[in-house]
Design a protein that fits this description.
By secondary structure, the protein is an all-alpha fold. The chain has four helices and no strands. The chain has one domain. It is 60% helix and 0% strand. It is globular, with a radius of gyration of 13 Å.
Length: 77
């Protein structure tokens, strides 16, 4: 069970703004196919367009950075 699926986090997520909720729900894990990773990356980018990334949680910053780095390494970005 991931951290977001835990009951205490589900309740927390319901109190978040729609954009933050979307940002927390986009799967940024690297354990998927390259097309899925690229799709999640662009979904996240579209959902967070115009936001100040310094306001994101550290885990979201780390996850998107790792995903972006991986996609760059794979020459997708």
């Amino acid at each position: 069970m991931s951290g977001l699926e835990r009951p205490e986090n589900i309740m927390r997520d319901r109190s978040l703004s729609p954009i933050i909720f979307m940002k927390e729900k986009v799967d940024l894990s690297l354990n998927r196919s390259l097309p899925e990773l690229e799709s999640s990356y662009w979904e996240f980018i579209e959902a967070t367009e115009g936001e100040d990334s310094t306001e994101w949680s550290s885990s979201v910053q780390e996850d998107i950075s790792a995903l972006e780095g991986y996609l760059m390494k794979m020459e997708v970005l």
